[in-house]
Design brief:
This protein is an alpha+beta fold and 78 residues long. The chain has one domain. The protein has 2 helices and 3 strands. The protein has helices at residues 43-53, 72-75, and strands at residues 9-17, 23-30, 36-42. A hairpin with a 5-residue loop joins strand 1 and strand 2 (23-30). It is globular.
């Protein structure tokens, strides 16, 4: 997978309650220019993303490019 130089990386992960009370994963994304943002992902979507990335733990996402959340077939479309 080719990662663009200006692509954000996953700086931190945490679990939070979603609006419906179900668990959601909150990712902190860090951009090369120092900007940061947060992204909430449903429990089901995160399970699929971890599986597609070949990762077992949420902590394994830290330091990875954010494109790891997508299957390899979708990255070229971003």
């Amino acid at each position: 997978m080719t990662v663009r130089a200006d692509a954000p990386i996953i700086a931190a992960t945490s679990v939070a309650a979603g609006h419906d009370g179900r668990a959601e994963l909150v990712l902190e994304l860090a951009y090369p220019n120092g900007a940061r943002t947060h992204l909430s992902v449903t429990e089901e979507a995160m399970a699929r993303a971890l599986d597609a990335a070949g990762l077992d733990r949420l902590e394994d996402l830290e330091g990875q490019p954010w494109t790891v959340l997508f299957g390899p077939d979708q990255v070229g479309e971003l």
